[in-house]
Design a protein that fits this description.
The chain is of the alpha+beta class. Helices cover 30% and strands 21% of the residues. Strands 1-2-3-4-5 form a five-stranded mixed beta sheet, with helices on both faces.
């Protein structure tokens, strides 16, 4: 885990950094940006049960130029539920770390922060979907996620993310 990064809930002032992260995540697919994107981001930030958690650089060996920049992120949705005695369940989505910051344990740090928030809100489980890349699956398995108890399925109206 990096000692030059802290995790926290994102705020409206983190918008530009978040858009940069999502552009890396989405490849060639467009990301909602500009004024319309900013309004949507503010809406997401105020949505009950939704938390966007970021790893924020507090310093770096580049003369501090990265200080204050969001370099890794995950979105957590804690959703109301009637089963399991009314305890909510959680969903994690849009996990990404800037390419130049990968391999430092930042996604792990963000995921553990999201997990702590879900458990604090009494969620009985956390779900996530990940791509078919073995590396991504192994990462989540190291954090305790299992793929042997449920089958994930999707129904899309939007195209899959394009990676090169």
């Amino acid at each position: 885990m990096s000692d030059i990064v802290t995790t926290r809930a994102l705020a409206a002032t983190d918008y530009d950094d978040l858009i940069s992260l999502y552009r890396e995540l989405m490849g060639k697919l467009p990301v909602l940006a500009g004024t319309q994107g900013y309004r949507r981001f503010e809406e997401i930030l105020t949505h009950p049960g939704t938390h966007i958690i970021g790893a924020v650089a507090t310093g770096r060996n580049d003369g501090g130029q990265s200080a204050g920049r969001v370099v890794s992120v995950a979105t957590l949705h804690v959703l109301a539920n009637l089963t399991h005695e009314g305890r909510p369940y959680a969903l994690i989505e849009n996990v990404v770390t800037l390419q130049s910051w990968r391999g430092q344990g930042l996604a792990r740090q963000v995921m553990l922060h999201a997990q702590d928030l879900a458990w604090q809100r009494d969620a009985y489980k956390i779900m996530l979907l990940t791509g078919k890349a073995a590396g991504a699956r192994a990462f989540y398995q190291k954090l305790g996620y299992r793929s042997d108890e449920k089958h994930a399925m999707t129904l899309r109206r939007a195209p899959l993310r394009i990676t090169e």
